[in-house]
Amino acid sequence: MKFKRFVHTIPMKLYILLAAVILFAFFSNDFGLVDIQKTAIILAAAIDRTEEGFSLTAQIAVPKGSDRTTGGTSSVEIQSEGQTVSDCLTRIYTKTGWVPKLVFCNLILIGEEAAKEKVFDSLDYFLRNEYMPDSCLLAVSEGKAGEMLSSQSAIDDASSLAITKLFSDAAQKSGKVMPNSLKDFTMGMFGVSESGYLPFVRSTPQQGEQSAEGGGSGGGGGGSGGSSSGEEPQQIYSADSTALFSKDKMVALLPIEQTFALSLLKGKVFAGTFNAKEEGKPVTLSVIENGGGVKLDSKNGLKAKLSVDLLVRLCCRSTAVPSEENIGDTVPAKTLEDAKGVVEGYLTDLWDTCKQSGCDLFSLKQSLYRSSLKKYAKWKDNFLPSLSFETDVKVRTRK
Amino acid sequence: MTAATQKRIAPRQIYLLLACIAPIGKIVYLPSHLAHYAQNDLLFPAVAQLLVQSLAVFLTLLLAKRGMSFCQLLEGVFGKIAARIFVGIFGLFLLYASLLPLLEQQLFVQSEFYDTLPSLFAFGPFFVFCAYLCSKPLSSFGRTWDILAPLAAAAFVGVMLLSVGSADFGALAPAGAAGGRGFLRATASATSWFFDAALLIPLLGKFEYKKGMAWKGTLCYLGGGAAVLFFLATFYGIFGPLAETQLFGFSKTSKYFSGITVLGRIDYVFIYALALAMAFYVALPLQGAIECGMQIAGEKKYLRTFLSVAVNALLFALLVILEYRLKQALGVISDMLFWIFPIFFLLVPALSLLIRRRRREV
């Protein structure tokens, strides 16, 4: 009887097993397999404006030859032109037979000229693409982005990897670079303030070039770029300037000091340094604690308050240690006063740049919108010109 | 315990369905859809829908007091033939209602579980799985909810724990920015996601009404609804003006958790658990439709299996035909044909209660 019952339930048990297998297959994502021979894994993309529309340079990871013993990534840069960014990617596909895969794209470089007019024409494709990670870093390059991405880095196999190193957490804490992601930049630009910022990347030839042992190895292994890679000078990248955007275009460039001021206002700096004067001579102070913020007061007119609260220690003097009393890292009161003046100066310059360029960098218009629709309606058309500001800077040291 | 009572669904299982399974369908496509029409006011249309649906759930659970199936309920008033026609129409409605969660799930699987657009038939296995589920009697689903509800609740809590820290809830201010028109459009187009009371109608007669079940069930539904509202607020807090472009909300909010850069996408554990529970939720209206078919034709050997295979094959064919028009189809259901839903989830239980009163007066 029991056996009969068992036999009777076999079809259903098999069906359950089949359903379980199918369900597993359904959720399997093809077991994450990627056919490397047919797929172009794009590490970074560079976009420039052309007469036709756009030029897209994609840096594609390629398998390394077995002769390389170092870790890292070999890459090849493919350039393509088209009326839209999507058009460019399709042409890359037709040129190479590789299906472009954006899921690992971690950097989009926008050429300076492309950034100066309707930047979202360049970014629209990436925003619409479901497979594009929105945590992807964005940056503006000095000159043509394609040239920068195709250049040979002095510190890494792939230029995009060298550039993304500039945006590491440690670099961010230094206060000298302000990275931004596709998501955060777009949120700022599509929000009420219609403003945002991106790091501005410059490249300079490495001094004493060809000193690196693998002059041709970076591109040589993967047949990089197509152009004669061994001849080109290796590049060092920097991103200590910040490009400001307002209403879809780049409107100003913050120098390193103002980038530092912006970092201080965001409260992100730890162990970052800046210079002040001690008896007319430069000293370097290191930030141990950083509090910062910008608040809008709309009770009597519009007033912004830029607050920075710093705990600093003395990092370096430009002269030899003169006496026992200042051998520690405590900063003398006079130097603190001077440091306060320096930071105030940075903040004032930053404010002026923002106001003149029409960039609501601190999303103050959005603050007003969120706090009162009535006041927003009153001020929205003449917001930045109506805005006054004050700074509140505190620079302290350990006793 | 007799064989008859063994097959019945326990009230606890109904509560679990309302509190833990029903909310899952509202965190996939609905958040971006609401943000499209109501922007930062997306909570208000959701609250309106939840209140109306709670009333519908209350009325439907009151109907369960009579201990009759939907077909038996109508037979007493309209006669056998008319009752079967009504039940048939209701079954067709459930088939129609199943389209939206199906489309949602196909789009979700295609874009979240694959790195590039998969082949047309990648979603096909779901229908084999669904055909199996639908071939089982509806009353057997109680046990499924017993297992799935804690899983779904734990996964939801996991997703929320990873998401809340990244949200700027200030993005929900100022209230009323979308205006009355935005509210009405968002409320109307969200109707297609709120038809849970209609899912209870084929279950009538399969569970025993216990004292206070109507209000307890309604409270459970409101509890699940509160979780949906919390999710919507977090979703908008994370994406702000980009919310309307983030199509599959529950799979995206948790990826900004700071630990993910170190640990990798650990949130996928919770997302997969929710996707698993969602697969059962998607099958629910189809099962209801097949149950309606069974009530019309009566219990016959292999009929349920036949109906199950036929209905799933039909829907698979439909999705294959729609292939590149999935989003448009979703738009037609939610923006143009939304008015069909309240006729079935609200009017049907309300009128069924009234009909009984009239009979008593006679």
Q: Which word captures the global form of chain A?
A: globular
- Any idea what the shape of chain B is? globular
Helix count, DSSP H or I runs of 4 or more residues of chain B: 16
| DSSP helical segment count of chain A | 13
Named CATH topology of chain B: Amino acid/polyamine transporter I
Largest interface: A-B, 31 and 31 residues
**What class would the helix/strand composition of chain A place it in?**
alpha/beta
Number of domains of chain B: 1
Mean pLDDT of chain B: 89
Spans of chain A of at least 5 consecutive residues whose pLDDT stays below 50 are 66-70, 211-229
Number of strands of chain A: 14
CATH class category label of chain B: Mainly Alpha
Largest sheet of chain A: 10 strands, mixed
| Straight-line N-to-C gap of chain B | 39 Å
Helix and strand sequence of chain B:
HHHHHHHHHHHHHHHH
Biggest sheet features of chain B: none
Q: Runs of chain B with pLDDT <50, length 5+? A: 1-6
Number of strands of chain B: 0
In N-to-C order, the SSE pattern of chain A is HEEEHEEHHEHHHEHEHEEHEEEHHHE
Instruction: Give the oligomeric state.
Output: heterodimer
Verbal overview:
The complex is a heterodimer of chains A (about 400) and B (about 350). Chain A is built from 13 helices and 14 strands. Chain A is an alpha/beta fold. In chain A, the strands form two sheets. In chain A, strands 1, 2, 3, 4, 5, 6, 7, 8, 9 and 10 form a ten-stranded mixed β-sheet that branches. In chain A, strands 11-12-13-14 form a four-stranded mixed β-sheet, sandwiched between helices. In chain A, strand 9 and strand 10 (about 250-255) form a beta hairpin. Mean pLDDT of chain A is about 85; it is low at about 65-70 and about 210-230. Chain B contains 16 helices and no strands. Chain B has one domain (about 10-355): Amino acid/polyamine transporter I (Up-down Bundle), CATH 1.20.1740.10. Residues about 1-5 of chain B have low confidence and may be disordered. In chain B, helix 2 runs parallel beside helix 8 (about 140-165), helix 2 packs parallel to helix 11 (about 215-240) and helix 6 (about 80-110) crosses helix 15. Chain B has about 350 residues and is mostly helical. Helices cover about 70% and strands about 0% of the residues of chain B. The interface between A and B is medium-sized, with 31 and 31 residues.
